[in-house]
Amino acid sequence: MCGIAGIIDFAGRPVLQEELQRMTDAIAHRGPDGEGFFVDGAVGFGHRRLSIIDLSNAAAQPMTRFGLTITYNGEIYNYIELRQALEKQGIAFTTQSDTEVILAAYHYWGKDCVQRFNGMWAFAIYDASNREVVLSRDRFGEKPLYYTQHRGRFLFASSLRALLPITGARLANTTVVMNYLLHEKAEPLQQSFFKGYHKLDAGHFLIINIRSAAAAMPVRYYQLPQSQHSACSLSNASEELSFLMQDAIAIRMRSDVAVGGTLSGGIDSSYVAAEASAVARAKQLPAFASFTAGTMESATNELPYAKQMADHCKLRLFTTVPTEEDYMTALLPVVLAQEEPIQSLSVVMQYAVMQLAHQSGLKVLLDGQGADELFLGYPVHLGVAMRQLSWPKAIGLAMQSKTKYGLSASLLAQLALYHAHPLRKAKRQQGRWSAVMPNQVLQQATIEQIAAMDVAVQQSVQSYQVYDMVAGNLPALLRHEDRNAMAFSIETRLPYLDYRLVEWALQLPLQAKINEGWSKYILRFTMQEKVPAAIAWRKGKIGFEPPALQERIIRKLLAPESLQQRGLRLLPNAPIHQLSTPMRWRLLSLQLWAETFDVTFE
Questions:
Q1: Residue 201 among known ligand-binding residues
Q2: Domain ranges, ordered by start, for the chain
Q3: 496 φψ region: left (φ > 0), alpha (ψ -120 to 50), beta (else)
């Protein structure tokens, strides 16, 4: 895990290392173990290193081999197998790093080499002979990559903070802001919250031709599967899931430094911890270290489950219970780390977990992100499933799920009639916001993504899952995960996003995911022999989000006049207090972001 940056000057002017230094200084937290630069006339790369695999100086970046130069952030977990395949083709290696494997793979297989990678990455490769730079981002967007064009130059980096000082622009992207407020879109496709700054979407290439002084449009190289298996044996599916999880975790524990994990006490992280602790024992490593946070609110405190899991698997458990003062103190550092508005206060709690892991000295953590999207773990998935069924079956599913999801009858009705109808929900949200914002401002929000989600929901549960992973909830969660971890120079690895597991899980039939009212049924069934039954068959879903505390912080900090002074248009005497807690949180998050980065609204 590292931080990358680069400049390509289309006018042919030499890139100055001093400018690259300014960019890498802004991302020093992503790589405190070293820095490096490469300049070839109008092309310049910078790199900050977090040493995980091959800790020697020989693996430093930018790295040049085969006439190719790379600056790279991430890990290719199957680099050992790729290296062996390339050695059989006569390619010799001089390091033990996965970075050199990427260069060799690109040299031998070309741009399609990424189809062979099992990992997470954002990289730029400069091909001196063809005079082109190729940017690539991993299949699901675990690693960030932003870019912009300014005064005849193309600039890219792992972080917006590396780009902002070079260009100086601090205008809000109005469409993105309104989609965030109205439609809860915290991670837009292609764009960012800053006007003129773009992100390379997950599963895409971007090719910059230096001779023609132009950057082509991003090209998608990876698509999630749309087909679905009609039936499967529960025992066979469980056996396959067990194999895929064990291998995904085993290759994600390849490291020259210690590996630990987060542990919420929920089923996703508990399954990861159980398998990881088994790998640690097999390798005769120290007891697997896990990190968790509790809350001061008993209804949302999962520490008892985490402690039960730690005792069961003999984990070393590190805990923290942030106070209200801790949350208030951490809020602005979180906003700075995230660089764009955040979804909820749970992001601050995740930040506290990463801080705890950093204090223990760990550099690498496994995390359970992605399981809810794959195995239908959110209550909204129940509404989507009910929309696919006949009314008698939908009512039966609702009755089964009522206690197992911990949902009231009224919320179940909302899930089926409101949350599972994105366009209907969007119009209802716009109606609520119309009490505080002028209609001409509200109309700057776009409906295309919401319409696409509505079509996906109507087609199948699987099509909704694909949408959610590409353009819905998952991209925002991955941004929060990466920025919080890298704020403390920690690399997080996500076994549930092993592409083999993702493709297999998406094709499972609905009854393997929601069965007898249980969410994530196949996951629970498979892990029940490895974790306490009280965890495998937990009812309801909590998550890192203390709602009462979030409301108190909103009341203390929300200052609509700050947003108005920066150009956001609100109606006179707008009854903002009448908005729901999540809606006012989004206003507060937008306010703190604008104040932190000195942003102006158009």
A1: no
A2: 2-220, 234-374+463-536
A3: alpha
Please state which of the four CATH numbers 3.50.50.60, 2.60.40.1180, 3.40.50.620, 2.60.120.560 is assigned to the domain occupying 234-374+463-536. Answer: 3.40.50.620
Beta bridge partners of 171: 600
The Cα 37–Cα 48 span in angstroms is 9
- Whose tokens are 């916001």? That residue is 433
Which position among 2, 113, 232, 313 bears the catalytic label?
A: 2
Contact assessment for residue 181 and residue 37, using Cβ atoms and an 8 Å cutoff: no
Q: Which fold has domain 2-220?
A: Glutamine Phosphoribosylpyrophosphate, subunit 1, domain 1 (3.60.20)
Mark whether 313 is an active-site residue. Answer: no
Q: What is the dihedral of CA 12, 13, 19, 23, to 10 degrees?
A: -10
Give the burial class of 29: count Cβ atoms within 10 A of its Cβ; 0-12 exposed, 13-18 middle, 19 or more buried.
middle
Q: Does the global pTM surpass 0.85? A: yes
Taking the CA of residue 66 as centre, how many other CA atoms within 13 Å lie in the half-sphere pointing to its CB?
21
Sign of CA dihedral 332, 337, 343, 346: negative
What letter would DSSP give residue 406? T
For 54-70, the pLDDT digits (tens) are: 999 999 999 999 999 99
Helices (H) and strands (E) in the chain, counts: 26, 18
Tell me the per-residue pLDDT of 67-96, one tens digit each, with 9 for 90 and over: 999 999 999 999 999 999 999 999 999 999
